[in-house]
Amino acid sequence: MTTPNASTPTTREPAAGTRATAPKPGRDSGTPSAADTDTAAARSAAADTAGAAAAAITDATLWIELLRQFPELLVELAPSYRSPSAPRATRSGAPSAPAGPTRAEREESLRSEQAHGLTPSGSRTSPVRLHISDAVRDISDGVIELDEAVHDRLGLPRPRREQVAGRLLRVAGLLDRAADDDVLLEHIRDEVRRMARRCTRALGGAEPVVRVSGRCPWCDSVSLRAFPARRAVLCVNPACRCTDRACDRRTDPAHRHAWSEGAWVRLAAESGADPAELAASAADTARREGGR
Length: 292
Fold this sequence. Notes:
The protein is mainly α. The protein has 9 helices and 4 strands; from the N terminus they run ααααααββββααα.
């Protein structure tokens, strides 16, 4: 009885004329190939881009809806007092209203105003409120420029003349076509947001404020508030004081500590706040503006 040689290999060698091939990466080996990885990354990036575009379109649409209160500015711009030259409606049998100032009285009033800066009392038309007038002109020009810029960027003919409300509807109808152009979509959102905010402020709307967790590094109170329109976090505690010589809060009680976007990481570390919460609370979105 013979025993096999211990030095004899027990594995089979490939037959003559054949060659051993390594398993292909991917489906054969169970390891994803570089092409599969690149495809998955491209799909993920495309999904992220599409999601960002959809969010920008939604936000721009909401800002346009807020900006459609523009006609209220025109109402605010109209004089609130009746012109003395307008005819007055009198009831039958009622005593007639006193006549207006005579020519001599008007001349005397004019001389007093020129000499002493005094204006006569009595009914007169109210002065034009310049902040309303400036807002009307700025928004009107801005909407026209935005409408023309969108048509030019998309290769469309020059838009026909239209009122502000009609131009806004036209821009809103082109948001889907602008989704493929990140620069154009961002420009539309920024412009309508700027004009909507100015319109709201001119009409007397309050600036939105969001409470932020954490404590002020200076006064240790829970008085941190985010102001999305300013992209800043402020301490609203009137009793807050600091020893920083470069800060006006040390001497001016009306001043408020402010941390701009670049200082949020340091503020979060010193106050115990969450940096992600700071960024989310200071996000300037139309949904938050319209929900107040």
